[in-house]
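A.,

Following up on our hallway conversation. Structure tokens first:
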């Protein structure tokens, strides 16, 4: 079966498949048009809470990852706000927590997926949430040492991947050469690659008790290596 690892990037969405496809599209809908077969494992929150999402609490409690790599997901009302101030105020009122700038910058991409999954229920079986840093920590039997934003961190992640993906150096080099850094950062490449490894390996589903779906019926789950 064809599967894809997908990461948001400055140019939109970067994806790599287990068949060797390398794709970058500005919008998630355009990516789906290209990746029209197989499941997509995406580094983006899927299934938005009406208050605070409990899945991240579960992950922080059970698994060890690099500090700051698991952040709270904005509530649905904040994701659809028109400005950072409005989103911050709404999130604080509903969840008791202000919205970080990091979370706000992701809201456009979160909306792109959410709108499609609300309109097309069949996509909920194809588009799956995963988490690169969590995947690396599980595959490595512990958190990685260097930040993925550093060259040392990219090298460290490629070493982990090379044990499970013999072709990783070629795929990484091809993506690095095809796309400039202003649209695709190096850490976006290694993030998509590890999600493709998740997709092809033995997996497990993390679900918080009592939080299987959001108010629109979209599953709230995180797929990680078993």
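Then the amino acids I'd put at each of the 226 positions:
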């Amino acid at each position: 079966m064809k599967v894809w690892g997908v990461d948001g990037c400055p140019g939109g969405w970067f994806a790599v498949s287990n068949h060797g496809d390398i794709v970058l599209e500005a919008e998630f809908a355009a990516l789906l048009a290209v990746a029209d077969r197989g499941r997509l494992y995406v580094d983006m929150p899927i299934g938005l809470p009406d208050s605070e999402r409990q899945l991240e609490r579960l992950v922080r409690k059970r698994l060890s990852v690099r500090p700051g790599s698991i952040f709270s997901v904005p509530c649905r009302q904040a994701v659809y706000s028109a400005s950072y101030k409005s989103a911050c105020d709404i999130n604080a009122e509903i969840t008791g927590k202000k919205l970080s700038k990091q979370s706000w910058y992701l809201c456009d991409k979160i909306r792109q997926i959410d709108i499609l999954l609300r309109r097309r229920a069949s996509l909920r079986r194809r588009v799956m949430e995963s988490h690169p840093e969590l995947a690396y920590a599980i595959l490595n039997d512990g958190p990685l040492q260097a930040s993925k934003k550093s060259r040392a961190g990219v090298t460290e992640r490629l070493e982990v991947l090379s044990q499970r993906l013999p072709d990783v150096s070629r795929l990484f080099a091809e993506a690095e050469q095809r796309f400039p850094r202003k649209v695709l950062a190096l850490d976006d490449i290694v993030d998509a690659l590890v999600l493709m490894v998740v997709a092809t390996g033995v997996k497990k589903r993390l679900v918080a008790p009592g939080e299987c779906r959001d108010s629109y019926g979209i599953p709230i789950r995180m797929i990680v290596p078993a």
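The two ends are 19 Å apart (CA to CA). Curious whether your intuition agrees with the design.

B.
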